[in-house]
Amino acid sequence: MRVIVVGGGILGTAHAWAAIERGHDVVQLEREAEARGATVRNFGLVWVSGRSAAELATAQRSRDLWQGIAKSVPGIGFRASGSLTLLRTHEEVAVAEEMMARPDAGERGFALLEPDAVARHNPALRGKFLAGLHCTRDAAVESRLALPALRLHMKTTGRYVFMSGREARAIESTSAGVSVRADDGETYRGDAVVLCAGASHGGLTRELLGDIPVRRVRLQMMQTAPLGEELTTAIADGDSLRYYPAFAGPALDALNAAQLQEPTAAEHKMQLLCVQRLHGGLTIGDTHEYTEPFAFDVQEAPYRHLINTSEELLGRRLPPVVRRWAGVYSQCLDPNQIVFRRQAVPGVWVVTGPGGRGMTLGPAVGADTADLMNL
């Protein structure tokens, strides 16, 4: 078959990969020269630890798919480095203790560590915390390098073409197949189309399906110069417990009721996530903004909070911040779907809304869609 993938982000590329793996031909269209959306404005984390029970199996499978892909494409920078969620209050520790008592704690690779054990796992952590929730199943890829590396590998099959700078304007489905008309004047014909439009919920997505149960979420992040030492795991602070469904329960309710969150973190709905890039710098974030229209500028107070929190956990000054950015991702609001996925017309599928989990879930989502399409 010939599959046309619209969208050059992680979901589009994961669907292209799944089709190539099954022996099909793929043409992938991207309106920019390179993907510039949430795919490259994230941590590159494959975050199994916080997934809900309903999505845990998909996240675990996706993590293993990433590890398998890395054997063929080492340029994605996959590291099975795990994570440490550093807990600074007794209420946060209680959430972790409740998590450890659940039957899937072992499946998630969880262990609750005392500070000295945290330091043995990650000697760069010399700051103030009461305990660390260690997750061996979390991993990371290089978000700004992974997609070019995947495309280069797919190109070697002779069955993959990446067409940049081409925006899809119309999609048609007939008994003879499907076609995508792009703004370069060309019509690309095939047997199936997967539209992965990211946070662009209008345009073709709206024409095909009308309003769909998704929303956009804005976040702010930053990157430092090289740390000068190895951060052997990704790290998170206790505020992250508030944003991952796995931790829901009485202890989290008590944590939220205690209203202990620092005012800036509460105002901007913040968590600290931090992962070291292969070049040694740290990617640090983030904030959550849900109400549109979003501001077009970035605010400084969240960055001060992230810097202060990072330095408290590391027990040292951060290297200089070399860049800051904002991003927007698409989040599915249907509780019965991990992502929004629907066949709009015969042979045409729309997939979006991973909700900040694109890197975590991408390979499994692409494989699942391929199965639904009988590829």
Question: Any overview of this molecule?
Answer:
With 375 residues, this protein is of the alpha/beta class. It has a domain of 194 residues: FAD/NAD(P)-binding domain. The chain is built from 10 helices and 19 strands. The strands form 4 sheets. Strands 5-6-4-14-15-16-13-17 form an 8-stranded mixed sheet. Strands 8-2-1-12-19-18 form a 6-stranded mixed sheet, sandwiched between helices. A 3-stranded antiparallel sheet has the order 9-10-11. Strand 10 and strand 11 form a beta hairpin. Helix 1 runs parallel beside helix 5, helix 1 crosses helix 10 and helix 2 packs across helix 10. The radius of gyration is 21 Å and the shape is globular. The model has no long low-confidence stretch (mean pLDDT 97). This is FAD-dependent oxidoreductase. It comes from Mycobacteroides immunogenum.
